[in-house]
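Protein details
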Amino acid sequence: MTRKQTTITAALAATAVVTGAAAIHASNHREAPITALDHKADITDVYAFVPANDPTRVTLILCVDPLLEPGNGPTLFPFDPDIRYEIKIDNNHDAVEDITFEFRFATEFRIPAVYTSVAGFGDSGAADPETGSVIVPPRITSFDNPGLNQRQTYTVTMVTDDGQTKTQLNTTNGSPLFVVPANAGPRTMDYEALFNAGIYTSLSRPNVYTFAGTVDDPFFIDLGAAFDTANFRTLGSGVPAVLTDTEDLAKQNFAGDTVSGYAVNAIAIEVPIAMLTSTGQAHDASDPEATIGIWATTSRPRITVRRSPNPAQNKGDFRQVQRFGNPLINELIIGIGAKDRYSMSEPVNDDQFAPFFLNPPIAQIVEALYNELAPGALDVPEGPRTDLLPLVTYTNPISGAPNPIADLMRLNTGVPPTAPTAASRLGLAATPPDLAGYPNGRRLADDVVDITLRVGVGGILNPDFNKFPNNRLGDGVNVNDAPFRLNFPYLASSPDGRNRRHIDPGEKFPDGRDVPVD
């Protein structure tokens, strides 16, 4: 790949100012035409953070395949063996990958005559009353259980030196890396046992942890309201999409989380910071070498011929289907006619999309809506949005590194993590700022929707706009519907397919409060 020159003209530097609008948006669930037709290649979210329980490490998480209904059998939701899933690291600030973690998957059907991908019952299974033969396998408690009919394994390859060096990361005992399946329900499996068995912390490269499987979708948003042309709920303030102080501080939801009860396929890897920096060492937050850029891609072979039941035949080089750096840049910033081109392009070439960044569309749309719904209630900064400059240049203490025009999630690995009990869901938009939160990387609990609305629309980084209601914009969904783990891979368990619940408008929250409709 040809590396792009680092000289940035004044015109492109002005574009970089506005690119910050893209750096503060939420999540990608079916954001481009090509991935609306190719769910397995659809990247929903990317997370990158220094974990609070070990500040010498970085956790990287890639989620794909949105809005999986865990009760939707008989075939559950495997990763696609034809897709190459990659997490990429730029550690010398030129928007080109220096380290890539490549994940590939394989699928086997162990009892192909059975109609479902998973089956289990009790400690001994269920037998035919006439012959005594076991018909239903025992409840699935391990990856060796025959009831795990559709079983997946995966490989992890670390690619460095401009693609010249490839290091396979295997288990130290040579056993396969297994994928944790979707949670079919309590009769069929002990999902928690499988989840725990699917956490690998003893790979051939020391201190590398990995996990792959179907989990609770960690994203939280009133998604239905967002795409009903930003028709967010009217809560305690009496103004749509404006929270009261009490609502803003609460660690609970005041609107329905559309993603609640849904699953997603997740890949997680955790490595020492020193493995990711250009120097091979950890650095203080003030050192530009501490900052890395992260993005993820999914790619398919150029030609795939499906001849079921035989395996697919693939030909040609891999071609990128989607990429993901900062959340919602493609979904809300890029015009629908350019979304596929954006998905298939490289971050180093992002200056070609400058016209979309000059005036963030989401800010213009919300301002126009408020002018109709609540005239005078909201004043939005005019373009060009110089108030977003700190988010683009990532000045100290977030980063003193050069800033190429590129859709990268930038993480300053030298910023100490915040303990979960003290962390703010608003990250850098909090008062006082939580420096370990989004857009300095992205933690699972960071409320990127509210950060989007306040910084990208409300313009709160400009002191003239850091006032009510600009600094209280929000969708009313403050937390995920399932608690995150405190240890790797930090993700919450997949909803139970038999008993999962989607929290919808007009229902009740678990604590008995009504979920608002208006």
